[in-house]
Design goal:
This protein has 121 residues and is mainly α. It has two domains: 34-83, no CATH class; 85-121. The protein has five helices and two strands. It has helices at 12-29, 36-55, 78-81, 86-111, 113-120, and strands spanning 59-60, 70-71. Strands 1-2 form a two-stranded antiparallel ribbon. α4 (86-111) crosses α5. 0% of the residues are buried.
Length: 121
Amino acid sequence: MTAELPESSIPDEAWEEFQRESEGPARLDAPKEPSARARMVAERLRRADEEAARRQGRVRGLGKRGRGRTEARAEPEAWRAWPDQPRQARRRRGMGVFWVAAAVVVVLLVMNPVGALGRLV
């Protein structure tokens, strides 16, 4: 008894075309998996955050109901979490005040050019 494959009514060229057409959009919609290097870096940073949390004593003790020790969530350092830049914020605020004052001066000059320039001379 020999097992022979049944003949397909669809030619091989049609199957190849179907495979190419269905593979394109599916590949574009598929989620991108991080590379092995990215996974290793993420794991190393997560472990460093947990170790830093342990060193700083952010571990909760026994609760009222004796649930045991649970670790507090380790948060990443500010340079990784969000760019905290107070110097730039102050500079931006100062420039905003400057531009508002400049706009007020321009409006006053437009409304009364003779009076504003007469005081300067």
